[in-house]
Amino acid sequence: MQSYWMLMTDTAAELEVRDLPEPRPGPGQLLLCMHAAALNRGEFVPGHGLHGKAGTWKAIGGEGAGEVTAVGDGVAGFGRGDRVMGRCAGAFAEYALMEATEAIAIPATMSWEQAAGIPLTFLVAHDMLVLQGRLVAGEWLLINGVSSGVGVASLQLGKALGAKVIGTSGSADKLERLAPLGLDVGLCTRGADFAPQVLEVTGRGADLVVNTVGGSVFAEEIRALAFEGRLAMVGYVDGALHADLDLGALHTKRLTLFGVSNKMRSKEQRAAGVRRFVAEVMPHIAAGRITPQIDQVFDFPRLKEAKARMEAGSHVGKIVLRMPVAA
Questions:
Q1: Which strand (E) or helix (H) includes residue 38?
Q2: Domain spans of the chain?
């Protein structure tokens, strides 16, 4: 089978396609014939740690959708021929292994490409907005970098939960394209200058802030938060891994700051999050109240082009790689 591997250095990434034997599922695993897999910026950005140790090769791709072709010992609830999506290592390949606890049944009306763009971004959004963020109807949600995959998923889930959403982007065109998804207020900026507008629009500040950008906007987000506001740290595409923290604001406004990452979570913790997601978010997706936003689909040989589009920052929503079986 064909599989993409990547060598990440401190400054760049090298991609190659390898011919490898088809893997076999171990206990608790599913073997999928992959139909589509989605790109995630964190896998290609130095500092995020999702690409492995610098100077080593790694099979890449972190989420996808495919048909179950074999089932490992101890698996219940899935069988050959089932259409599933989920987080899985080495998803940019013709076949990939997925833990059964990560697998999510694909609604019958959903395309492979749409399904491939759900697992990482929407599981992360659910973690931020529901499991840790405690967002409720009527609250104000601020998303910095709203046009990213996680940003769009957070916008869609936030609206499904009844929140009012403010999003920032350096592109007025992107903000306009997100208006049909329910974006209440779009702020066209890449800088740390949005707090006065957030305070003016909301009258009190944002109840929950999603930071997909990094340290360059962190201090401004603290200023934009309401009393008992929460701040989710999920990305740092700006490369700024440190930021000033106003301890006075943290103290007096009773703020909550939290990170969103699966890097140190156990299998059991990730599985529990998937179960909550299936129960709480999949009904919205299955009913069409949330439709995954796919920016562009690239055929398997064009991963370099897909990666370049992602790094150029011109996309809105998810970029997806279509596997040879689906081409």
A1: strand 29-38
A2: 2-118+292-326, 121-259
